[in-house]
Amino acid sequence: MDKRKSFVAVHAGAGYHSTSKETEYRSVCKDACKQAMEILRNEGTSLAAVTKAVSVLEDSPLTNAGLGSNLTQDGIVECDASVMDGLTLTSGAVGCITDVQNPVLVAKQLVQKQVQGGLSLGRIPPSILVGPGARQWAEEQGITLTAEGGLVTESSRRTYLKYKRKLDHQTALMEKRQTADDTVHKKMKTGKDDLECGESSGVQDTVGCVCVDGDGNMAAACSSGGIWMKHRGRMGPAAHYGVGSWAHNGCCDGKPGVAVVSSGGGEHLIKTFLAKTCADSVQKEPNASLAVSSTFKDNFLESEFLSGVEDKHGGVLVLKHLMEDDGFREAEVLWAHTTDSMCIGYMLETHSKPTTFVSRLPESSLPGKSFAMEGRILNFDQSS
Amino acid sequence: MDKRKSFVAVHAGAGYHSTSKETEYRSVCKDACKQAMEILRNEGTSLAAVTKAVSVLEDSPLTNAGLGSNLTQDGIVECDASVMDGLTLTSGAVGCITDVQNPVLVAKQLVQKQVQGGLSLGRIPPSILVGPGARQWAEEQGITLTAEGGLVTESSRRTYLKYKRKLDHQTALMEKRQTADDTVHKKMKTGKDDLECGESSGVQDTVGCVCVDGDGNMAAACSSGGIWMKHRGRMGPAAHYGVGSWAHNGCCDGKPGVAVVSSGGGEHLIKTFLAKTCADSVQKEPNASLAVSSTFKDNFLESEFLSGVEDKHGGVLVLKHLMEDDGFREAEVLWAHTTDSMCIGYMLETHSKPTTFVSRLPESSLPGKSFAMEGRILNFDQSS
Questions:
Q1: Could you give phi then psi for residue B78, rounded to 5 degrees?
Q2: ipTM of this predicted structure
Q3: pTM for this one?
Q4: Chain A residue with the nearest C-alpha to that of B251
Q5: Does B230 touch chain A (CB under 8 A)?
Q6: Which of B172, B260, B276, B277 has the most CB within a 10 Å radius?
Q7: Is residue B180 very low, low, confident or very high in pLDDT (cuts 50, 70, 90)?
Q8: Starting at the edge strand that comes first in sequence, how are the strands of the sheet with A329-337 ordered?
Q9: What class has domain A7-150+198-378?
């Protein structure tokens, strides 16, 4: 255990972050990093740290996770979350869970129950629970539930009503013109006045955290309320194995450890297994920047699984970590996104405070069609 | 379109099939093949054919899918199903859906809605729906619902009550001895008197179908009621993207088309993305038997994601298809399983009737520790 070499990075969603709220977004990321680092400084595991960071992000009404999540078409909050532990290669996830304060805690508990082992009568512990059964299980495990609708905020309710009016209006128009003009119908389907971008209040998706602890163990966690006005029961990328979060400690044969979380247009992330694809690439290609950029180009923007999709919105936060037999350790953190922006925070144990910023696509780039990528080599011995 | 070159293969679950019921299992597989072939002969697509075959398997009370599915701990049926279309590389899935006669039809409808394209307000059509929202969506789409509890049969209810008594008894014993003896506790957790094998009535898991149609398009579909006495909300492999079903038409650059369905111990299939891993391997390695056997050895039985797991129960049904520019076509069907048995059926358009049989592990092999594999090269021009 060398807790001085622990590191945590978080993001508050790949999407659109208005400059007017930039300070608030950064402040949430800062808080999440600090609380996760507190755990690492007390010799907690990376699993505990990522879960803590994501709970902090969930508790902020500003993010699209936990409290203040986007509402479904019928006005409720259904959350997705997952956690992956790189030491045991165990993942836990919840999909479309309602009225649980911190969905990520349920995902963590699912990891822990799987690591503990088999159930009676030879049953295998579940890796993913969805819907009412997930909430019921959480309650049995003593995890805090909210009152019904307890994750809806005044602001999310207001935005919901605004979108609801738009949706009802468009539906009425579409029904009216359905038989008359297919072109109108088509235009409305792909209209720019949509829920994915352009809202001044800011639209984000899945939040997440990657971490390496003092023992060199990797973990990743993510959480999301899903897209605005989704159909009830629509399970997003944050709950999909291999999509929202991935962590792998690496091996003695020089394969680096890696932790990745993804965010963005759900079904596009799912179709490309974005977190796992990125992690696999980082473990194969020695140059981490090349690994991440080639994943974004070949396996996302030009993926055969997304052919015909005009705009591909996605982002990743990646942590690569190498630990040699003599204890020498080096690490690198990278972020890449095709979305307008992504709010990032990170902190080394040796740092007195987290670094936070909003990464933005260059003005010349079109969201959904090109990506921005950046990274930092982590110097475990340097204070700040 | 050369409908004479269409082919369909089904399986009624990798698990344990008693010899006394062998004729019944084979009869269901036969019926599923025939009904799917009827669609292919009428120039239907592989997508329509796999869905039809799996609906037939679901409608049989003998299989663990649709009617007669395994019950959850609290006595209800929750189904998982998925469909993948190899032409558009689109997958649709439902998880923990209740009271829908044919879950696979909902999955197929999700594929079709995605292929149709975007929703109003820029929303992306969902690829997976779970829980009550999935049933609600099915109803909106005009898919047949059952009465509440309509998928429970007299036989499944009886088996449930038997397991429930066992479970209640073990829980009571465990609670009693919890403080006294950890060894007892541990023994009970891994006891041989479990739900996964050894029941004389036969235990199966996910059923599935792979197909190539007259146009050379591939598709795969699967459906499952999940393991006996699962917790409500436990989503199994049949609903997981990349796990239960996978289909890919292949490319002009000589990459073969492939369709794979998997079955067995859910969480083990999930952790290893069994269907996709197998399909990727078949598309890379020219020798299909070698591709499937190396997947079973390296990526399942010896997978780092299943380290510490004593018995690994899984099976796959694989279809490989090569179509050259001049219309020359060749295909191969393979099945492999570490489970005691797997009931298989297949049919070429040129055949007058399906071939069905139960594939069994050799007596010298231990279920969960070694696998049996077999296959047939398909001769599209030979009648039977």
A1: -125, 125
A2: 0.93
A3: 0.93
A4: A304
A5: yes
A6: B260
A7: low
A8: A245-248, A257-264, A314-323, A329-337, A372-378
A9: alpha beta
